Amino acid sequence: MDTQLKELRQLASRAENRRTETGIPRVAMVQGEIPEHQLSAVYEPMVNLILTGSKTMTVGDRAFRYDPATYFVMSVDLPAVGSVHPSEDGEPYLAISLTLEPAIVANLLADLPKPAGGQLYSPGFSVAPVMPELLDTWLRMLRLIERPDEIAALAPAYEREILFRVLQGPLGWMLRDIATPDTALSRIGIAIRWIRENFAKPLRVEALAEMAALSVSAFHRHFKAVTALSPLQYQKHVRLLHARSRLIAGEGNATSIAFGVGYESPTQFSREYARQFGLPPSRDAARLRA
């Protein structure tokens, strides 16, 4: 695997310290010291492979650290706080990712035998060691960066194979669940999408449970299992992340932005913002802009 990792690092070495598109649909890369506010975000469903350095992800009260030759699967949109670290010999953090498209996963699952069983309460994120077969597929995918004329013909096949390798691994159930409509994970995903799109509106858990076709108690249990947050905590995290982005962009003062993301009390907004990010809104935004 060392030879595969070495070539992958060379291919991804042109990445910048932000999401860098590769020209391959849904495939991106990132390298170096990433600004703090970019690591505190709502992360989209993805498969993320670490090539150099390490990354820590905290979602709710759960934290994962993943190192080179491990991959991370996130199956729903999750508000998370991340931090990246160089390798022990000082090489910058380097990673590649594939954004998950449920329709592509579902199409692949239609060609595979249906596995028995499943998990009752499933988390929406986890880490596993990468296998040589998965690394080999990633390598063929990234080689397309240097052969852009072949992307349209070959990238869909390589994407399908990456997904197949993940499905065959210890985190395969996560991909199955996001593409299977009657699973609890898929149902919770409906509620999560509503919160993301309507985060500034009042939240009624009973209405979300109805969307997910679950009882209120079952909805609470599954939502917490998937996201490590309650529905109200999830909404609060999304509101605060949007508020932080708007403050950094200079789209208004703390009071106007508090109302804009759904808070009724600027005082409560400032208190929760400082608890989440360590500083009051205006001071935090000034620090990040500087």
From TrEMBL:
UniProt KW keywords = Transcription, Transcription regulation
Q: Please list the residue ranges annotated as the HTH araC/xylS-type domain.
A: 189-287
Supply the SUPFAM superfamilies for this chain. Answer: Homeodomain-like
Q: Which InterPro entries match?
A: Homeodomain-like_sf (IPR009057), HTH_AraC (IPR018060), Tscrpt_reg_HTH_AraC_N (IPR009594)
The protein here is known as AraC-like DNA-binding protein
